[in-house]
Specification:
Layout lengths: L8 E2 L11 E7 L2 E6 L5 E3 L2 E2 L1 H8 L7 H6 L1 H18 L5 E5 L5 H8 L3 E6 L2 H11 L3 E3 L12 E7 L8 H11 E12 L4 H6 L8 E2 L2 H10 L3 E8 L2 E3 L10 H4 L3 H11 L3 E3 L5 E7 L12
Parallel strand pairs: 6-7, 6-9, 7-8, 9-10
Antiparallel strand pairs: 1-5, 2-3, 3-4, 4-11, 10-15, 12-15, 13-14
Bound molecules: zinc ion.
Length: 296
C-alpha cells in the first residue's frame, strides 16, 4: 500500500509520455531520481511541491549572485559560443528572450552584439540586479502564456534552466507560442547520457528533469518544434572560482585554501574543460505551424 507523502512533497507522472512506470536511477539528498520505463525520461519523483521550490529560489541558497559575479568572465566565453551558433542561424539578429538570465551575463553580451534583449527571471534579487546594475529589461517571475504576445521573438535562450522547471513540456509550449514562425530556441542542459552529467549534475533538490539527446528531441517535438541540431557542450570554467560552485564545489573543497589564494594572486583563470556534461539543443518553430491533432 502506498505510504502518504511527507508534507512538502508531491508525486508526478512522466512529463514526456504521461506514463507512471519507473525504475530507480539515483538517490541523493534524500530524494529519488527515476527513469521512465516508457520513454526513458529521467526525473525526480516524488519531488518538492511548488511552495517549497519558491522558497528555495528566494532563500539565497540557489543562484547566489556573488557566485555568478565570480564566474562572470568564464560565463561570457560560454555565452559567446551560444551566440555564435545563434548568429549563424540569424545573422541579422533580432528580438531575443532569455528565460532565466540570472544576473544577466548572457543577455548583456547579446545586447553588445546587436540583439534587442528581454528576460524573465524567477529570482527577484537577480532580476533586480539585471535591471538596476545592467539596465536590462528583465521581468521578475516565470513565463506564462500571456506574458508576451504570440510571435514576439526571433530567438529564445534557455541556458541551464529546463532541468529546474516543474513543467518543462508546458514551458516549451509557451516558448513555441512566443517565438516568431521560423524563430529558434536554444536550450543548454546537463546531458544525463554522459558520464560527467551523471557524476556532477544529479542534484535533485534543484534539477527535476534530466535529458538525453533522445528525450530532449521527444519533448521539443511534442511542443511543436523542429529539432535542428544537438551537440555536446563544454563550458568555460573559472578555475580559481570553482571553489564556490555548487556543481564542482565538493570536488574542489579540499583545494579551497589553494584556490582562494590563486584567485587573489592570479585573478580569473579560465579554462574549457572537455567534460561533455551538457548538451545544446537547437530547435525551430515551423513557418506555418502544423495544427495539433484534435484542434479545429
Ligand atoms: Zn515517459
Amino acid at each position: 500500500m502506498p505510504q502518504p507523502l511527507p508534507a512538502g512533497l508531491e508525486s508526478v507522472g512522466c512529463a514526456l509520455c504521461g506514463g507512471d512506470r519507473t525504475r530507480p536511477f539515483a538517490r541523493r539528498d534524500g530524494l529519488q531520481v527515476v527513469r521512465c520505463v516508457g520513454c526513458g525520461l529521467v526525473y525526480v519523483n516524488p519531488r518538492f511541491d511548488a511552495d517549497a521550490v519558491l522558497r528555495h529560489y528566494n532563500s539565497g541558497q540557489s543562484s547566489r549572485i556573488q557566485y555568478y559575479l565570480d564566474v562572470e568572465a568564464a560565463d561570457r566565453w560560454s555565452f559567446a559560443e551560444l551566440l555564435d551558433v545563434a548568429e549563424r542561424l540569424r545573422p541579422a539578429r533580432g528580438q531575443v528572450l532569455d528565460i532565466g538570465p540570472n544576473i544577466g551575463t548572457g543577455l548583456a553580451l547579446a545586447r553588445e552584439r546587436g540583439w534587442q534583449t528581454r528576460g524573465i527571471e524567477i529570482n527577484e534579487e537577480a532580476a533586480r540586479h539585471c535591471r538596476e546594475q545592467r539596465g536590462l529589461e528583465v521581468r521578475s517571475g516565470t513565463l506564462a502564456e500571456d506574458t508576451y504576445p504570440p510571435d514576439s521573438f526571433d530567438l529564445v535562450l534557455m541556458a541551464d534552466v529546463i532541468e529546474h522547471l516543474r513543467d518543462p513540456l508546458g514551458m516549451l509550449g509557451i516558448v513555441a507560442h512566443v517565438l516568431k514562425p521560423g524563430g529558434f530556441v536554444m536550450i543548454s542542459t546537463p546531458n544525463i547520457a554522459s558520464w560527467a552529467g551523471r557524476l556532477l549534475q544529479v542534484k535533485p533538490e534543484e534539477h527535476l528533469y534530466y535529458f538525453t539527446p533522445a528525450t530532449m528531441t521527444g519533448m521539443l517535438e511534442k511542443a511543436g518544434l523542429e529539432v535542428l541540431d544537438q551537440q555536446a557542450l563544454d563550458r568555460y570554467h573559472n578555475l580559481t572560482a570553482m571553489v564556490y560552485s555548487t556543481t564542482c564545489g565538493s570536488l574542489f573543497q579540499v583545494l579551497a585554501p589553494v584556490l582562494r589564494l590563486a584567485h587573489r594572486l592570479l585573478g580569473d583563470v579560465i579554462v574549457k574543460l572537455p567534460l561533455r556534461e551538457n548538451l545544446l539543443a537547437v530547435a525551430r518553430k515551423p513557418d506555418s505551424r502544423a495544427r495539433t491533432a484534435g484542434a479545429p
